[in-house]
Write a structure and sequence with these properties.
By secondary structure, the chain is an alpha/beta fold. Helices cover 24% and strands 28% of the residues. It has six helices and 13 strands. The strands form two sheets. Strands 1, 2, 3, 4, 11, 12 and 13 form a seven-stranded mixed beta sheet that branches. A six-stranded mixed beta sheet has the order 5-6-7-8-10-9, with helices on one face. Helix 1 packs parallel to helix 2. The radius of gyration is 17 Å and the shape is globular.
Length: 254
């Protein structure tokens, strides 16, 4: 079995490269299940129902979110129509949305979990560990996949080491820069950050000139997402069909 995880999709250029190439990637690498982080997909902040369905129609099976989960207020009204959209368990408001979902893939159960880091993050409502424990206590699945949306590299690494015997994959999101530390921690596939999908000429997806004017010149600017030629960051995780243990994790750059 092969699982594809797509890094933070940023704005229209990020969405477009996913829409244009996902089908080809799935065919080329024999992908069985696709997850994408979509928290930046609507002009860099949040997601809309229209964009959710665009990414679903492109071939994404499950979408995870992060600190911009509630940037678009319509998510509160439309969430029931986005059944494959996960909200981090420990982000405020704590009582909104689903933070995990179980899928059947090739006769096996895969539980996808969305959690949120504590260090340097806003809207932190609780620690992530009790929610991971809750999932493990309440479910019996063949494979557990965690998107850990966090700023701190050490926090992501610690989480993977703590749960290496219980969780099968931990991928980091949020920083938008793909790290070169993909590896197996025990049999848990791990990478500190998968990276992003968005404009190549940008500051982690944001317009360079706008950010220069804001930071260097001190001007009051609006958050602007960069456009233009895009790149796609993802990882492919190989899973043994019989034991359902991770056997390899490979970075993908397009």
């Amino acid at each position: 079995m092969r699982i594809l995880f797509i890094g933070d999709i940023v704005g229209s250029s990020g969405r477009q490269i996913v829409v244009d190439h996902l089908s080809t990637i799935k065919d080329k690498y024999n992908i069985d299940f696709t997850i994408a982080n979509a928290e930046n997909s609507a002009h860099g902040k949040g997601i809309t129902k229209k964009i959710y369905h665009q990414l679903k129609n492109a071939g994404t099976d499950c979408m995870t979110m992060g600190n911009h989960s509630f940037a678009k207020r319509e998510i509160f009204d439309d969430y029931d129509e986005c059944e494959d959209l996960l909200i981090p368990a420990n982000i405020e408001p704590l009582d909104f949305g689903n933070f995990y979902k179980i899928y059947q893939v090739k006769g096996k159960s895969i539980c996808v979990v969305n959690l949120y880091g504590e260090a340097f993050m806003n809207r932190v409502g609780d620690r992530p560990y009790p929610y991971m424990d809750e999932v493990l206590e309440e479910t019996q699945c063949d494979y557990y996949f965690v998107d850990f949306h966090a700023e701190s590299t050490s926090e992501k690494m610690l989480f993977a080491h703590v749960y290496q015997n219980d969780v099968d994959a931990v991928v980091g999101t949020h920083t938008h820069v793909q790290t070169a530390d993909e590896r197996l921690i025990g049999t848990c596939a791990y990478i500190t950050d998968v990276g992003m999908c968005g404009a190549k000429e940008s500051i982690i997806g944001r317009d360079v000139e706008e950010l220069y004017n804001n930071v260097i010149l001190g001007e009051r600017t609006r958050f602007e997402v960069a456009n233009g030629e895009a790149f796609l960051n993802a990882v492919i995780i190989d899973v043994d069909d019989e034991t359902m243990t991770s056997t390899a994790i490979t970075r993908l750059n397009l």
